[in-house]
Amino acid sequence: MSRTRAVAPFCLGLLLTLSVPAAPPEPAVAPAADEGSVPEPPVRSGYRSTALSAVLGARLADGGASATTGDRGDRVDRRRTTLWGWPLLGTPDIARPYDPPAERWLPGHRGLDLAGVRGEPVLSVEAGVVSHSGEIAGVGVLSVTHPDGLRSTYQPVVDRVARGTRVGRGQEIATLDLGGHCVLHDCLHLGARRGETYVDPTPLLLGVELTLLPVVP
User: Fold this and answer.
1) Local structure of 63: helix, strand or coil
2) Which residues are the signal sequence here (predicted)?
3) What three-state secondary structure class fits 16?
4) Residue 197 lies in a domain
5) How far separated are the first and last CA of the chain, in Å rounded?
6) Which domain holds residue 113?
7) Is residue 60 assigned to a domain?
8) Looking at the domain assignment, is residue 183 inside a domain?
9) 190 domain-assigned
10) Does residue 141 contact residue 100 with C-beta atoms inside 8 Å?
11) Are 157 and 142 in contact (CB under 8 A)?
């Protein structure tokens, strides 16, 4: 009888222990990063992007015109060009902006330098016909004449398509080569010309070029 009384409290304690639900485990806490620590940069692939050239906006009608009245009553033709696409995959950084000289015969920077990687494809900014494909002073240069009269130029490039080739917007026309205007890294020099006059390619890549022309009555 005394043995039964001794075992009873032990069994009751065991039963209470099994019937009480276990506390949920504490969630793991990630170790806090050092304030001074710098995250590892992502590994850069051979090309800036594997996607096609980013579309920067809707195309505007090429050559569309509307007659308006100016402050002095002059009639003008507001003619817009289509936006250009980027000549490198994705959206490259502008390493050096357009900086024309004060006079045409002085040295200056008549285009944009876009940071790139040697060997990546160079794309036509707009549809047109290749009007030049060769070397100038040992540098590979390619030019495309577009329907609106503008001409885009690309250098330094190799593996160029032939002169007279019709190309589409975003079509591969060459491969980026070493050299060019950049010293510490590879870059593509993109130029824009209307006739023999250099124009700033930046509005064509980022916005709209607005040209005001007099309208003959």
Assistant:
1) coil
2) 1-22
3) helix
4) yes
5) 127
6) 85-206
7) no
8) yes
9) yes
10) no
11) yes
